[in-house]
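Might you be able to check the backbone structure tokens below? Thank you kindly.
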Amino acid sequence: MENVYNSAARLWEKARIRKVKPLTIDVKEKVPSDIEIAKAQTPKPVTQPAHEIGLLPDELESYGRFKAKVELSVLDRLAYRKDGKYIVVAGITRIPIGEGKSTTTIGLAQALGTHGRPAFACFDLHLTGDIHAVTTANNLLAAALDARLFHEATQSDE
């Protein structure tokens, strides 16, 4: 019975510890162009960071190699764990020198990763609630109306 307990305790401790390995950053003296930056880094397949943070393979719904949705059942499975931190970087004032929300978000994720803290940076999450849905519906209606008016003006029934 003691062996079963010790084995369970080891497994529990192993499951508790998360070892997220950030991608290496190659610091340059001269700032490279956007395309050079994009080509210099190969993202991890989404299954790798999912495994690193303790998600099971069946809790992931993949959309290609680099994007996935996480099943809500994870919340039930990990309900005993303490909640993590959630940081929203938001703003509406444009900054001409390019140090805006995106730069701040990436810098914050890199800094947390450097200090050994698991960090994920997500962009364009539509955290505006119903406003986004209303805007999308309004745009769809305007496009349909535009198309109808155009076709009525340029075509005849004959």
